[in-house]
Amino acid sequence: MSTLKVTNIQATGETASRAVSGVAAAWASVYYSSGTPTSDESVNLSSLSDLGTGQFGANYTNAFVSADKCSTGIANMNTRVICKRMFAQTVSYDEYRVYEISSTPTVDDQNGNIMVTGDLA
């Protein structure tokens, strides 16, 4: 496999280019199958672990430079939010909780997405 090294990237048909560091370094489509978090599509995700109702861990294939990466997530047609637990993160692992927007209980969700940006090691 070859490695292509660039500073900026530009999509076909776009006039603006962007820094490669601004492109998602990891993302996953997450859903629960029989109470277990599963992903059928992902980039830079090696596995998910079940940490309890509405809670899961994400292990990244390639580590980040710093544990202070930026993550975001949304679930179930915009009625739930996925939040990263700031105190449970390393360069290759994050923990997430799925919350109802109108209340605080965590819930297992049938579909959601997470996206992580940051520099890879």
Element-by-element helix/strand order: EEEEEEEEEE
Strand count, sense and barrel status of the largest sheet are:
8 strands, antiparallel
Number of individual domains = 1
Q: Give the assembly state of these chains.
A: single chain
Q: What strand order characterises the main sheet?
A: 4-3-10-7-8-9-6-5
Determine the N-to-C terminus distance.
Answer: 19 Å
Number of strand segments: 10
Helical residue percent? Answer: under 10%
Q: Please state the structural category.
A: mainly beta
Average pLDDT, to the nearest integer?
A: 84
The DSSP helix count reads: 0
List unreliable stretches of 5+ residues.
none
List the keywords.
single chain, 10 strands, 0% helix, 121 residues, two-stranded antiparallel ribbon
